[in-house]
Structures are given as C-alpha cells and as structure tokens.
Amino acid sequence: MTERVVDVAIIGSGSAGLNALAQTRRAGKTFVLINGGEPGTTCARVGCMPSKAMIQVAEDYHRRTHLGKYGIDGHEAMTLDIPEALEHVQDLRDTFVDRVLGSSTDDMPEDLFIQDHARFIEPTLIEAAGQRIRAGAVVIATGSRPVVPAAWTHFGERVITTDDLFELADLPASMAVIGLGTIGLELGQSLSRLGVDITGFDQLHVIAGTQDPEVSQTAIDLLGKEFPIHLGQAAEIHEEGEQLRVTAGAHSVVVDKVLCSIGRAPNVAGLQLENLGVPLDARGLPTFDPNSMQVGDLPVFIAGDVTGDLPLLHEAGDEGRIAGYNAAHGETARFRRKTPLFINFCDPNICAVGLRWNQLDMETTAVGQIRFAPVGRALIMGKNRGVLRVYADKASGRLLGAEMIGPKGEHLAHLLCWCIERNLTVGDLLRLPFYHPVIEEALQAALYDLYAKVDTKNEGGLIELARLPD
Ligand SMILES: Cc1cc2nc3c(=O)[nH]c(=O)nc-3n(C[C@H](O)[C@H](O)[C@H](O)COP(=O)(O)OP(=O)(O)OC[C@H]3O[C@@H](n4cnc5c(N)ncnc54)[C@H](O)[C@@H]3O)c2cc1C
Ligand SMILES: NC(=O)c1ccc[n+]([C@@H]2O[C@H](COP(=O)([O-])OP(=O)(O)OC[C@H]3O[C@@H](n4cnc5c(N)ncnc54)[C@H](O)[C@@H]3O)[C@@H](O)[C@H]2O)c1
C-alpha cells in the first residue's frame, strides 16, 4: 500500500474538524480531511439546528394558549398540520446542511476529502479508503453518537434517538422520553406542545443537569406542569403488544415510541486509538491537555465531542481551532478556555454560567436571587415564571457564576458570561445602563440582592454612577 505524505490529517468533518481545517489552510499547510458517515455536521444535520427549528414551531403553536387572555378570538380552533410542520423543520435542516457543505467539502477534490472511516496504524500513520496517509500531525474530531442500551435496540423503530426524530414524516400519539438532560427536555417539551402525549423519565432527581437547588426545584415544577415527569429511577422498556411499556419504579406508561436521550458517547470505535501507544480510559479515550488539545506528547490533537468533555458547539469550534493551529504550526501552544456557558432552549430557558453550584465554596460565596413573577416585562410577555440566581465572591464582589430558569435566559446568560470573562464585580455591573422595561431588569434586581451581601461596595456616594473627579 502506498503512503501519501501530508502536513496535517484531520479525521472528522464536523464542526471541530472544519475549524481545524480552517487553521490548517490559513497556515498554508497540506492536508487531508477524512470523514466516515454523513458529512454536513451533527449540529446542522441532527443537532442544534433541526432541534431549534422544532422548538420554534412548538413554541409558536403553544403561544395560542395565551391568546385568549388578550381577547384574541379563534385561538381555540387553531390546529397544526404535523407532517407540514415536520417538513418545515426538514427543509430548514436541509438548508443548514447545504450551507455547511457548500462552504466546506462540496468542491473539495477526492484526494483532499476522503469519505471513509479512518483508523490509526501508528500515531502519525492513518489508513482510510484503502490508502495510507503519513501526516506531520493528526487531529481527531470524530464527534459523538447517541447512547442506546443494547437491550433496547430489539424494539426497532419504536425506540428512536435524535438521529431518527428529524426524519419522521408524522408524530406518534404517545411517547416516553427517557433521559431528561438537554435533549430530552428540549425535545420532550416541544413534542408535548406539538400534541404528542409525553411522559418523561430520568434516573436523577434533577432535570437538565441543574445543580442549584432553587433552580432545580423550580425547573421540575414548571416543566412538570406541561407533561408528567418521573425522577429518581432508571427507566426500563418492555414489549406491550405493538406498543412499549416504560417503567421506572412505581411509574409505568404504555407508549407508541420512546425517545432515548440518555447521553452521547464519543466516536472512537474502529479508530484503533490503542495504536497511539498511550493509555486509554474506560471509554477508550486518551488523556489530553484541554488548553492545547494535545494527546500525551504526541503530534496528535483531539477536538469536539469525541473528547467526552464539553459536548457543545462553541466548545467544539474552539477546540478545533486550537487543535488545528497546533497541528498546522508544529506547536503545542496552550490557549485559555472561555467561561463555561450552558443554555437549554426549553421554555423557560435553563442556563448555567461560570462556576456551578457544586463548585462553589459557600463560606466565601454570596448568592443573589430574583424570581421572575413580579418582573414587569416578563409579566407583559406572559412569561413571568422562573428564578435567576447569581453568585459572587463575598469579599471582592467578583461575579463567579449563575444558574437560572427564566424567560430570555439565553440572553441573560450571555451577558453574565461576558461579565465574568471581564472579571467584573457586582458593583461594576450595577454601574452599567439598564433600559426600562426589559428582561435585563430581572438581572438588575438579582444584582441588587447580591450587592447587599458582598463586602466590597462602590465608592463615590451612588451605587449606580461613578463620581467624576472634583
Ligand atoms: C439534538 C442535539 C441538539 C444539540 N443542540 C445544541 C445546541 O443547541 N447548542 C450547542 O452548543 N450544542 C448542541 N448540540 C451539541 C453539538 O451539536 C455538538 O457538540 C457538535 O456538533 C459536535 O461537533 P463535532 O465536530 O465534535 O462532531 P460532529 O459534527 O459529529 O463531527 C464528527 C464527524 O466525524 C465523523 N466520524 C466519526 N467517526 C469517524 C472515523 N472513524 N473516521 C472518520 N470520520 C469519522 C462523523 O461522521 C462526523 O461527520 C446538540 C446535539 C444534539 C445531538
Ligand atoms: N442546548 C444545548 O446546548 C444542547 C442541546 C442538545 C444536546 N446538547 C448536547 O448533547 C449532549 C447529549 O445530550 P443528552 O440530553 O442525550 O445527554 P445528557 O447527559 O444531557 O442527559 C442524559 C440524561 O439521561 C439520564 N439517564 C441515563 N440513563 C437513564 C435511564 N436508564 N433512565 C432514565 N434516565 C437516564 C441521565 O441521568 C441524564 O440526566 C449534551 O451533553 C449536550 O452537551 C446540547
């Protein structure tokens, strides 16, 4: 078998791999991009984008339940054509996939874009599509896939994952959602709002990975009003004629289909990472430096969901950039990672920023809080539900983190995240302008609550305004 030589080999043409490719191209290096499976990225094909399209349809349709309050007639008679709604989601999905392909691999010659699963022979020797590639450096960016217990695969098309959901031409009458993490909650709520009789299960006592007890309980209370949620027991599935019986402890329901959303596993099967010659953990993953993405001291870098850490689009992008930069420059430069930001697009949004509740030292931390019930703009929107909790270092007032369930949480979370990135204190934040009436006033109220509990106060007489020199 002949050996081709390139500067950089990138395995996986998802979001991480394509960002690594951009860095390689920018450095003017020779490369090969190898992708097994469907190109077009998980994000555009089966992830972020179709899920948000489905959430949008579900939210818009759900909005009719508010309209009676305003005296808008006819809302009760509104109906939704599910096949048409699903076709709309698929059309949008196709647009996003086409955009990705059009700006990445569509016009790449076959020798640069190899469509096959790759495997390692040596750390810098890869085999794919019957050829061997000797690379100066390798980027592993093979993503992740939905976890489905082997016993559940026997139920065929009645147990689906997000790889299947956006392919459906119609929705079943009833579904169980097993796993109420990010995917289960976002899509379980949407499916419920689209008219599917949903029952949710999670083995934990929390949903959406929340940690702050106030947020956790509020989330369970609010989401639990939309569909039954059973927590604290692992769910099991049994055949019940044509249908499936899902059982968790004392709770049991018979459904047409199950959405299995119990997590995603890194795609390492078949890569033969054992040929890297470094120790692998129980998941088959090597250790790596999250600041350089380097695997051991090899010229091998790993990025995106395959790391098993931070499986989020913006993190995959950053990791791809770091891995690609280092692979292309023959360096192991270390880059500072950004403040953690997590957004669950269920309604109200559930978000976490910076340090999580379980990472805080409660001896040195102050916690501020606002409930959305009395917030003017939230009330006007008919979305005055939820709670926002902000954390600061008690002595310095420096903002540390936040967790929330609330309206427009996606935006509040960004503001807080950017302020933490800039090392701002709660006093600094209160000196920023707040318009009226906006949802940011909820944040302002939480900050006042927090400000009262920190030791460092703003100087100059007024909390909100910096004093000019005399
Ligand atoms: C339903 C859903 C909703 C989501 N929503 C959001 C969201 O709203 N916000 C957010 O930040 N994140 C979201 N995510 C997560 C986000 O989509 C992922 O973090 C991101 O897409 C991961 O990108 P990646 O490049 O690591 O992997 P991928 O895009 O999966 O790319 C990996 C590529 O490697 C290929 N491959 C696998 N094995 C091999 C091999 N042996 N050889 C060659 N190629 C191989 C695969 O075919 C694939 O093309 C969501 C995920 C899902 C499933
Ligand atoms: N908005 C977003 O950013 C977004 C949206 C969707 C997905 N994602 C990414 O995709 C990843 C995977 O999402 P996910 O929701 O599949 O995983 P997850 O890890 O977020 O949640 C899985 C849940 O399944 C539960 N579970 C596991 N086995 C179970 C069983 N037998 N019975 C009952 N419950 C069980 C777990 O306790 C957990 O709460 C996430 O980590 C996230 O990073 C992000």
UniProtKB/TrEMBL annotation:
GO terms for molecular function: flavin adenine dinucleotide binding; NAD(P)H dehydrogenase (quinone) activity. Binds 1 FAD per subunit. Residues 345-446 form the Pyridine nucleotide-disulphide oxidoreductase dimerisation domain. Keywords: FAD, Flavoprotein, NAD, Nucleotide-binding, Pyruvate. Disulfide bonds join C43-C48. FAD binds at K52, T142, G143, S144. The active site is at H436 (proton acceptor). The lineage of its organism: Bacteria, Pseudomonadati, Pseudomonadota, Gammaproteobacteria, Chromatiales. Belongs to the class-I pyridine nucleotide-disulfide oxidoreductase family. Its cofactor is FAD. Residues 7-320 form the FAD/NAD(P)-binding domain. NCBIfam families: PRK06292.1-1 (NF004939). InterPro entries: FAD/NAD-bd_sf, FAD/NAD-binding_dom, FAD/NAD-linked_Rdtase_dimer_sf, Pyr_nuc-diS_OxRdtase, Pyr_nucl-diS_OxRdtase_dimer. The keyword Flavoprotein applies. It holds the Pfam family Pyr_redox_dim. NAD(+) binds at G179, L180, G181, T182, I183, G184, L185, E186, G263, D305. This is Pyruvate/2-oxoglutarate dehydrogenase complex, dihydrolipoamide dehydrogenase component.
